[in-house]
Specification:
This protein has about 220 residues and is an alpha/beta fold. It has one domain: Rossmann fold (3-Layer(aba) Sandwich), CATH 3.40.50.1460. It contains 7 helices and 9 strands. Strand 7, helix 3 and strand 8 form a beta-alpha-beta unit. The radius of gyration is 16 Å and the shape is globular.
Length: about 220
């Protein structure tokens, strides 16, 4: 049986364009696995109707949400509501969820676990990102400042694709956050100043892992 990964990439502002660029590494890794299929919804296709249709047709075991959010929702293109607590979480039963979305881990994450999602990794408060305002995908992937924030954020996803448990994936991410925080605080490289350390620490503190810690993708 094939593993199926579904990725949403609205890529409609500077932040979600960076998420799009950085999630490419995970998508490429998944596509290189002989047992894994990848489905991506991009830009205007990241809407509720197309998302639910794809979930029902393909039944992905792992979903990556790249997009904005709030305590009880995750959005798609132009911040259209994609999943809202109390209305849509039933579509996420029996799935591992990774949400790179501000605050959605506060209310939506626990609600998903309550209705039967296997695991939820995300952020219970704002996901903070400092970057150098690069505009091309290659430049965004090579942005040294963004790297400190996005490399640990996507490390959990890479670990899941590699076959690690949810617990191990989260631990790898948290360790990378801690390592990057230390690098940021001690760096003398121009542009990598300690002023961003509190933002990175905020992400480290508010990164959460809910549900079955032993489940694998």
């Amino acid at each position: 049986m094939s593993r199926i990964l579904l990725v949403t990439n609205p890529s409609d502002d500077a932040v979600t364009e960076y998420l799009d660029a950085w999630s490419e590494k995970a998508v490429d890794l998944a596509k290189g696995q002989p047992d894994t299929k990848v489905f991506e919804l991009r830009r205007e296709n990241v809407n509720k109707d197309k998302f639910i249709k794809l979930v029902e047709q393909e039944n992905p075991q792992l979903i990556l949400f790249n997009g904005h959010g709030d305590h009880n929702l995750i959005t798609g293109f132009n911040q259209e509501v994609l999943i809202k607590c109390g209305a849509d979480e039933q579509y996420l039963k029996n799935k591992i969820l990774y949400a790179l979305s501000c605050k959605a881990g506060k209310t939506l994450g626990p609600a998903c676990i309550e209705i039967g999602s296997l695991a939820y990794i995300g952020y219970k408060e704002e996901f903070k990102l400092t970057h150098l305002n690069k505009t091309t995908k290659i430049e965004q992937q090579q942005d040294e400042m963004a790297n400190l924030f996005l490399e640990p954020a996507y490390e959990a996803l890479l670990a899941l694709i590699e076959g690690n448990t949810v617990e191990k994936a989260f631990q790898r991410s948290q360790k990378m956050y801690a390592d990057n925080l230390m690098s940021l605080m001690t760096s003398k490289i121009a542009g990598l100043n300690p002023g961003a350390a509190s933002r990175l620490y905020h992400n480290y503190q508010n990164h959460i892992c809910l549900g079955n810690q032993n489940v694998v993708f």
